[in-house]
Amino acid sequence: MRKNVLLLFLLSLACVLSSCTSHLKDAKFYYVQAQESSRSYKTEIAIGSYKKSLQEAEKEVAKNPSSQAFMLKGLAELHLNLWEDAERSFLTAFSYGFDKGQEWAEWVSLFGLASAMEEMGLAQSAFQIYAHLVGKSKLKPVTIFAAQKYSDMALQRALREEGNQKERLLSGLYKEVEKLTNRDLSCGFYHYLQAQILSHRSDYRRCFEECVMARELGLPTQEIFHDNDLQIVFCYKRLKEELSSEDWEEFQPLYMQWVKRWNWPDPETPDWKKR
Amino acid sequence: MTKKSFEKIVQEGVRFIARFFPQSRYLYFPLLSAALVWAIKSSMEWREKIFSWEVWLDPSFVKVKSDEFILSFFSDHADLSRAFAEEIRTEDMHALRKLFYNLYPIIGLEDPFLSGLFHQELASQNYRDIAEQYDIKIAQAIVDIEAVEEKGRFLEGLEAIAREMASFSADLITQTSVQRALAEIINKEISKDMD
After folding, report:
1. Least CB-CB distance to B59: which of A48, A145, A274?
2. Which of A20, A37, A115, A266 is the most exposed place for a label (fewest CB within 10 A)?
């Protein structure tokens, strides 16, 4: 009888322990799955996986709170745009011993503040915070969001100007984004941003090259992926008009190699375009 | 499979969606056609997308494009260049930029749900109507979709119908005529229902 009770106790303990381990393990599994899906433009699967990762992390923090569990919870929340929840999770992770938790919470909090200010019409203050985050944030999702917002706002400002002043603003923006690329050369989104700025500067050859790098390295959403493809086609058309016949002869075969690699039906139609 | 059986699946789909959205007939086509696109393009769990609009829209693409890019978008598209000939001729960038924000996601980026939501305007080439109604129609769709009860059951049913429709051909969505046929069947069902 005593042996049976002990066996039952050990079995229950094993069950409890295995369920604790599996929630953290599942949260990590779904997080990695979400990142992989995101890299292959399956945004909706990625969102689903981030949600599952968050659910598992929530179960884990309820049963067995730890710095790792709160960190994972915060990261999943970050990808689901739950900024305030993410900030709280990172701060709690810090209280459990995750050193970077406080710093991450500050960046998330700043981004949330900038978004709120932008919505309330305080564009100038929001712009300054986005600029600060582009330069300082070491939390990639925050940097990416901030870089996109910062670039859009800076381009908007540049459009209001003309001549040298416009070029000065575009050149400054390009240098900021280039710094991000130099910090993380494999991030397709930063190359995409560089391409967008180069397009405003009418530097279509370099714009095309950045677009190709962005496409090959991967982009966060299918919408951005499509936008990048349309930018490639736009560069092609402009270069066709602008390049000397000698330069065109050099560029065109190179372009056609990419078209073949991407399985486009023709140089001006990406494969996803309705025909 | 015959055309009739495809029609039958679409009819079932319309009846199914009508149970959840009896007052929102305008959603029948965008929901069915978008589900069909997702089912064909990838056999994946697209279901989260419908209820994840806010998340799905961010991080976004860079919306501020150069004047040249915007002009090229309008003038290289046969229908758009006709519809906005005056704005293109005078290079009215203020007007074109405003129109671009609403037309580019549908005609340029080919968002399947938005294309479905504005399919009537697209079919009749009422591009100005799209631009004018864009914000209102999207806001309404978000409210109506968010309000649906038993989301899980709805998504399961919609997914099953989309997969059935998708089984007809892996290339259906590239054919505008198929989308037209889908719209015709749905309209027929709606008018039957109204009689």
Report:
1. A145
2. A266
Most B CBs within 10 Å, among A78, A223, A224, to test the B interface: A223
This model of the complex carries an ipTM of 0.80
> What is the second-level CATH architecture of the domain A42-160?
Alpha Horseshoe (1.25)
Whose tokens are 């949260």? That residue is A27
| Tokens encoding B184 | 């015709």
Q: With an 8 Å Cβ cutoff, is B110 touching chain A? A: yes
Q: Does B79 contact chain A (CB < 8 Å)?
A: no
CA A155 – CA A228 distance, rounded (Å): 17
pTM metric for this prediction: 0.76
Outline which parts of chain A fall under CATH 1.25.40: 42-160, 166-275
Q: What is the pLDDT of residues B137-172, one digit of tens each?
A: 888 887 787 777 666 677 777 777 777 776 665 444
Q: Identify the three-state secondary structure at position B90.
A: coil
B42 touches chain A (CB under 8 A): yes
What mean pLDDT, rounded, does chain A reach?
Answer: 88
B60 → closest Cβ in A47, A80, A148: A148
DSSP summary character for residue A269: B
CA angle B34, B36, B39 (to 5 degrees): 110
Rounded to whole angstroms, the Cα distance separating A200 from B183 reads 40
pLDDT digits (tens, 9 = 90+) for A192-249: 999 999 999 999 999 999 999 999 988 877 889 999 999 999 999 999 999 999 999 9
| Pairwise CB contact (< 8 Å): B44 & A45 | yes
> What CATH architecture applies to the domain A166-275?
Alpha Horseshoe (1.25)
